[in-house]
Design brief:
By secondary structure, chain A is of the alpha+beta class. Chain A binds a DNA duplex through helix 7.
Chain lengths: ~240, ~240
DNA sequence: CGTTCATTTGAGTGCCGTCAATATAAGTGG
DNA sequence: CCACTTATATTGACGGCACTCAAATGAACG
């Protein structure tokens, strides 16, 4: 019940579903599992046979350089299916791990393929989900390539807020995001030291503050301007 | 004939196609068009009604910051369908333009949807193509976030070589890529001046040289090591 | 053969990285 | 509940990669 509700919320945000669609989703065989923080789920080079639904907690996807530096591709929140691409890309080109203690649902590729085959509308919704994923990566490329540190940070926090709000996990200007400055650095391509300085700057300028995993946006307008955040790329309206 | 051959080559690299699949592709209504260099095809905010197949020449996808700085997302080569995502994301979040004079084929969404509906294998191949696109974006995020200028350049050229080779447009260690240092800078998040210095460094170290759109790889091994290039993320083997 | 675009090089600056040390918080065992 | 350990956050000093500004050279094009 709890299991499919996260998935249903997500898919409803991707397409209009009818009762049969909902029924098909609810009868999906999902293998629930609790996992501690910092545990690997999929590694680069793996051949996964199923996809991982984030039910509760936070997941992180990342790639590493030869010299061991990590780049976080994205932080995943309840309702996300971070490795949906493994349905058609059979060798994983990156890693997926838990960021916090998590409840995840494992869904076999076979079951997902059957679902996609039986219910074309759901297939389109899943495809759309992977396309939004790609759109987020494009924004990340823009962020890393063209914006300075404070802008990258502003953009990052506003994206997380927007996505968390979409699944009812951000109320008002405050939300919970249990990550360290190390993680922020790995996501934004900057050193921990510099992350700290940027956060201090944002705090001093009364734009945003962060303490022990709680983010508070103090001035949404100015933070949005700084980070040039425009949620268009999140494609949150399924009718568009 | 020429039109569908680029598309067939691409789809054959994505999935095993049977005669019916090939027939369906060959009877796709494609509206061919010649375009000059530097012309816009899709703009951010547009609602495209079709997709654009690159038949001949080079296309470029990019996003701009509020202050007008451009970030190139990718350079597209014959066989690519750069805006395939518009099939399910109805508002474009970025721009698509010609980089050189091009021949493009416009395929309506209606025709593509019909094709995907009639031939599930082709639908999967198209989905897979968009997933590879996303995988390339992830590598780009890693490149921009964690590698220094010379590494980014090395990685960029090796990716282009690999992709061009896959469609028979790179023989040996040399290939044609009609871009300016300005473009390279916009793709790799660095200034033109610095691109020039990096190219000089690569040339002096006998790794690579570039003159008037002709790239020659002088030392593949060392260039690969420098750029940490591993073609896994291109997912060029359809059986994996 | 002049105009324009692209490439190249130098000088100076600054954002951000590394190194190092300290402070604070969190977690652990006695 | 308090020593001890470890993780995370914070701050300063210093250096370097890459940016900006500016100018010169070379290539392309009508």
């Amino acid at each position: 019940m709890e299991l499919t509700s996260a998935l249903l919320t997500k898919l409803r945000a991707l397409a209009e579903l009818n009762d049969d669609d909902v029924g098909a989703i609810q009868s999906l065989p999902i293998n629930m599992r609790n996992m501690p923080a910092g545990q690997s789920i999929v590694r680069q080079g793996d051949h996964p046979t199923g996809c991982c639904l984030c039910v509760e907690g936070f997941l992180v996807r990342w790639k590493a350089t030869v010299t061991g530096k990590r780049q976080i591709m994205g932080i995943h929140i309840p309702g996300d299916i971070p490795d949906l691409q493994s349905l058609h890309l059979h060798v994983s080109d990156h890693d997926l791990s838990t960021l916090t203690a998590c409840t995840v649902g494992l869904i076999s590729h076979a079951a997902l393929r059957q679902l996609a085959h039986d219910r074309p509308k759901i297939a389109d919704a899943l495809w759309r989900d992977t396309l939004i994923e790609a759109a987020m990566m494009r924004e990340r490329v823009l962020n890393l390539g063209q914006r300075h540190a404070a802008q990258r940070a502003a953009n990052f926090f506003l994206e997380m807020r927007s996505r968390l709000a979409a699944v009812g996990r951000a109320k008002g200007n405050s939300f919970h995001l249990p990550i360290t400055q190390q993680h922020i650095g790995e996501a934004l391509g900057m050193s921990v030291v510099h992350v700290n300085r940027v956060l201090k700057e944002l705090r001093n300028n009364k734009l945003l503050e962060m303490q022990r995993g709680k983010i508070t946006i103090l001035d949404e307008r100015r933070l949005t301007d700084l980070g040039e955040f425009d949620s268009l790329y999140l494609h949150q309206d399924p009718s568009l």
